[in-house]
Write a structure and sequence with these properties.
By secondary structure, the chain is an alpha/beta fold. Helices cover about 40% and strands about 20% of the residues.
């Protein structure tokens, strides 16, 4: 098979076959359906021979394990999707479901093949249907390695993880030309739907990579953290690296003396997970929370955490969506969940109310409550109000909840509570000492984790340096956890 490789190189991009070879283990890729051609006879298409109908499909191995891969070839009819092009990908996904292996799609296409009309739309429809069938059965990863416009964006949108590449990736419902003609707005493709837009602002892309080669390396790394099909066992690594003494010392120094001061929750994550094992997802989006995967004693776990260095760790609409999606992914593939809590509450104010913080916040509650995987929660500092409940509290099914001694668990912080309970006294300067005394009483008698421990809401109050030990032993105990009985129903109705 001859490929027009130089044409892609002139654009600073790899060719479809080069991309596949960069992704797969050496000499493992096997192409299938290379002889497929379109059957359109309108607008001069009967005279056109479109090799493999513009998409290379096949299977190979990554890290020694089987994968299904397809790559659209922009040098062939702009990588446009026609009926047979769509059917090739749909057939590949169906085969991946049957063979129980991940599907990786490399998208580089001008969109629907206009000459094929409704047949092109049929190709998209068949593809979307298989994307949905595969969801929760086998992981689906999308790499955006060129333009991805119109209906083409919805296949990646259904998949589990989207990788974008700087100065190469473009995703949008309608391109700059249509935006200009309809909205009279001049905007570049990069500003409309470039990699930074979707990794930082929309949250559509879970990873932003500096180059194509870096992207394929990151995909290979991700596949080392996740099960390759539903029911795939997470195998414990033979060798585990963890500098116990160094990290036990570090974790005691993370919390600032000032409870209002922020800190990066990644420091805590690093101190309790295997050395250099944290692999973050959606790192540039909703920075008030952190999601990703890590290894704990050699086994993969899903990480969810409030991040006080971003907006104080408060839950807003974007953070809620990010957390809920990650929790549901981990639950779908039986990946245990480790949650770190330092949350002052759900964000107040008209802007987030109008965006639907109630609806978005409810997704977090729904996702955690629905999940049946082993769940361990660590409260490091603040856990206030509805956000405390939402962040995998015992009340939502956490198996074990641990709290550090300085943590605060209450309806709200002392300042807010005293402001409501003693509003009249606050207005009287003569009662300042009484108010101060009540504030201390609230902190010592209401907010302390000892109260939650007495009620059985906290499994144990632990010292920071003992956190890793409790996490490892808890997950080890929960290793064979059985799914709890569920009410008879088809499925629930998550507040999307």
């Amino acid at each position: 098979m001859e490929y027009n490789i130089e044409k892609q190189h002139q654009k600073g991009k790899l060719h479809a076959i080069e991309r596949i070879n960069a992704l797969c283990d050496k000499d493992t890729f096997v192409e299938i359906y290379s002889g497929v051609r379109h059957n359109c006879t309108s607008f001069g298409m009967e005279k056109k021979d479109i090799p493999y109908d513009g998409v290379i499909t096949g299977f190979g191995k990554i890290n020694g394990r089987k994968v299904a891969v397809y790559a659209q070839d922009f040098t062939v009819q702009g990588g446009s999707l026609g009926l047979m092009h769509g059917e090739k990908i749909a057939e590949l996904i169906d085969k991946a479901i049957q063979s129980r292996c991940p599907v990786i799609g490399i998208n580089d296409s001008g969109g629907a093949r206009i000459q094929e009309g409704v047949d092109a739309l049929c190709g998209y429809g068949d593809l979307f249907y298989q994307n949905v069938r595969a969801s929760g059965s086998v992981p689906q990863i999308s790499i955006i390695a060129g333009p991805c416009a119109g209906g083409a964006v919805y296949s990646p949108g259904i998949t589990d993880f989207i990788f974008a590449v700087d100065k190469i990736s473009q995703l949008f419902i309608t391109g700059p030309k249509v935006v200009k003609s309809v909205m009279f707005l001049d905007i570049s493709a990069e500003d409309l739907g470039g990699a930074s837009i979707h990794s930082q602002k929309s949250g559509v892309a879970h990873f932003r990579c500096e180059s194509e080669q870096n992207c394929y390396e990151q995909v290979r790394k991700l596949l080392d953290y996740i099960p390759h099909y539903y029911g795939d066992e997470i195998v414990q690594a033979a060798k585990i690296k963890f500098d116990e003494k160094k990290k036990a010392k570090r974790i005691q120094e993370i919390l600032p003396e000032n409870p209002r001061q922020g800190y990066d929750i990644r420091q805590v994550i690093d101190c309790v997970t295997d050395d250099d094992s944290f692999f973050e997802t959606s790192a540039e989006f909703a920075k008030n929370c952190v999601t990703g995967f890590a290894k704990v004693d050699g086994r993969s776990v899903g990480i969810v955490a409030n991040n006080p260095s971003g907006m104080g760790g408060v839950l807003d609409c974007d953070a809620s969506d990010k957390i809920a999606r990650h929790v549901r992914y981990c639950d779908a593939y039986n990946i245990p969940l480790l949650t770190f809590v330092d949350v002052p509450g759900f964000i107040p104010g008209p802007q987030e109310e109008q965006k639907g913080i109630i609806r978005h916040g409810a997704k977090v509650i729904y996702a955690y409550s629905e999940s049946t995987v082993p769940k361990v929660t660590v409260i490091t500092r603040k856990a206030y109000g509805g956000a405390y409940i939402a962040m995998c509290s015992k009340h939502l099914g956490a198996d074990f909840v641990y709290a550090w001694p300085a943590s605060e668990i209450a309806v709200m912080g002392a300042e807010g509570a005293i402001g409501i309970l003693y509003a009249k006294e606050l207005a009287d300067p003569n009662k300042a000492q009484e108010v101060a005394q009540k504030s201390e009483e609230y902190k010592n008698e209401i907010m302390t984790p000892k109260i939650a421990a007495k009620r059985g809401y906290i499994s144990e109050v632990i010292n920071p340096e003992d956190t890793r030990k409790y996490i490892v032993k808890s997950f080890d105990f929960l290793l064979d956890k059985a799914n709890m009985d569920k009410p008879l129903k088809k499925h629930g109705n998550i507040p999307l």
